[in-house]
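Please supply some protein, with fold tokens.
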Amino acid sequence: MAKNRISPDEYTRPLRRILVGMLVLALVAIFLIWRIDSPRVERFRTALVDTMVPSFEWALVPVTKTVDMFESFQSYASLYDQNQELRRELQQMKAWKEAALQLEQKNARLMDLNQVRLDPKLTHVTGVVLADSGSPFRQSVLLNVGARDGVRDGWATMDGIGLVGRISGVGDRTARVILLTDSNSRIPVTAQPSGQRGLLSGDNTARPPLEFVEKPDLVRPGDQVVTSGDGGVFPAGLLVGTVVQGNDRRLRVALSADYERLEFLRVLRSHAMEPITDAGSLVAVPADTPPSVQTEAPVAAPVTAGQ
């Protein structure tokens, strides 16, 4: 005989109806309680809230955490937007910096073309950079001016902003410039405003060290470095760069010249002064003075009482 099997729906369906009916009755009761306007019912509602709400704090924890997470996400999104805005502004500042450097170089070239002199006593000749030595042990460039243009060894060269190097080797049509960064370069300089003198020694790096400073404690990063003119190597007052402190804690100089864009160089004609061997020859005798007056000193006539 076949057994009668009872389906599970026959048990769950009545149970579901009972639960739905009880939920509807509870909701209707709550509705009626909250709608009745009576002091007694009001006290009952207050007591019910005071009894039920504190016990349901655990149920509000997920809601509170969700709200906190949402607020944190909004704060993070705001910080991300601000960071992106700062990045865009930084990119714009870099572009403006590049434009400012290009304008500075252009202004220097225009000043050079207009024959703007750094010193009224100095004249110059401008040359085009033809080639770079390209050696890690020797840093120099080649100019298209030479002996035919009156260029001599030892003359200073500038790019319109700062000192670049000195002439070392002159041909008829070309001249070689030893850069300040070359290991063979040594120039006397002065740090302003302290007035401390030192020696800028090239070491094949972009920031050569400042050595043999009289009082290093008086020299601070940010001080301006100019040529001192000692020994007659270079004219005094030529801009070299700014004092910085290197990673090795040594005083170094950030050169003002833009070594990345060496296209035109100004060669300063600094003629050496003639040495004085005879101090008496400084007092010159007029050419139209008679020889007798040149050799004999005038003698004053005596004055008598009758005169």
Notes: The CA atoms of residues 64 and 70 lie 10 Å apart. Residues 293-307 have pLDDT under 50 and may be disordered.
